[in-house]
Amino acid sequence: MNTLITILVDGLTYASWLFIVALGLTLVFGVLKILNIAHGSFYAVGAYAAASFVAWGASMGWAPAFSLVAMLLAAVAVAAVLAPLTERGLMRFFYGRDEVLLVLVTYALFLIMEDATKLIWGPLPYYVSEPYGLFGNVEIGVQSWVGYDFLLVALAIVVGGAVWWGLNRTRHGKVVLAVIHSAEVASSMGVNVSRVYMLAFSVGIFLAALGGAFTAPMISVQPGLSVGVIIVSFAVVIIGGLGSIEGAAIGALIVGLARSFAVHVVPVAELFSIYVVMAVVLMFRPEGLFQRTQARKI
């Protein structure tokens, strides 16, 4: 029983931050039709920025609770700086081009950002310890977990709910949905599609950076961080269905529980378990569990 509880809690914790990152990836694909290989790099930059912001706040003598605000501000800063540079300065020149070319462009961006993070922050790891002890420990049965892990679960719920509400219950969200269904028709009705692309790309980068910022206290922030994240994020959106918020949530939960089960039962199959689950899902649902219905072409 204790092992089952441990698997469930650890899987939910892992799924929470993964959902935030994958949500940004699936949002960018849904709106811009871009499979962004560089998404993991924005995650890594968010983690590095959070480490820098938290260290700066500590050096100023601010209270440890400020570290949470610092991590949020780090994600906002990453989106505010990198979104215009990336979308306006690079991606907009390739809209409507072949999908393979877009993948190659984002892969080139991924390589550039990998080297840029090493130039800015260096090769040594960073540690963000202040936020991790703010919430004490939580006892469940005979097991004890760090309270910060449950903050991530709450954050994932809030972020997922906010994105869903923004898309389905606001005027701007309706405009974004119109562009998702048909950018040409939306443009003919007076929608500024270019502005919608910029908005969606900015939110996608913010979500990636937010996931990186709030997982920074749980990991060692070091070069190569983005590689593993983008691979697992792709697994999530492929399982759930590209462009689906519900799919990202279910996909993250499936991947999180599969990984947690493997870690506690068959440790050598940790990464292998994720790909097995993805392969099984694709055997029966090649387009993912929640792929949007598409119009039939004649």
User: What CATH architecture label applies?
Assistant: Orthogonal Bundle
- Provide the helix percentage: over 70%
At the first level of CATH, the class is: Mainly Alpha
Spatial strand arrangement across the major sheet: 1-2
Question: How would you characterize the largest beta sheet?
Answer: 2 strands, antiparallel
Pfam family, one: BPD_transp_2
InterPro entries: ABC_transp_permease, BCAA_transport_permease
Subcellular location: Cell membrane
Keywords: Amino-acid transport, Cell membrane, Membrane, Transmembrane, Transmembrane helix, Transport
Task: Give a brief description.
With 298 residues, the protein is an all-alpha fold. The chain has helices at residues 2-32, 39-59, 66-89, 99-121, 147-169, 171-181, 183-188, 193-215, 225-240, 245-265, 270-284, and strands at residues 137-140, 143-146.
Describe the structure.
- With 298 residues, the protein is mostly helical.
- The protein has a single domain, classed as ABC transporter involved in vitamin B12 uptake, BtuC (Orthogonal Bundle).
- It is built from eleven helices and two strands, in the order ααααββααααααα.
- It has helices at 2-32, 39-59, 66-89, 99-121, 147-169, 171-181, 183-188, 193-215, 225-240, 245-265, 270-284; strands spanning 137-140, 143-146.
- Strands 1-2 form a two-stranded antiparallel sheet.
- Strand 1 (137-140) and strand 2 (143-146) form a beta hairpin.
- It is globular, with a radius of gyration of 19 Å.
- The protein starts with a helix and ends in a 14-residue tail after the last helix.
- 44% of the residues are buried.
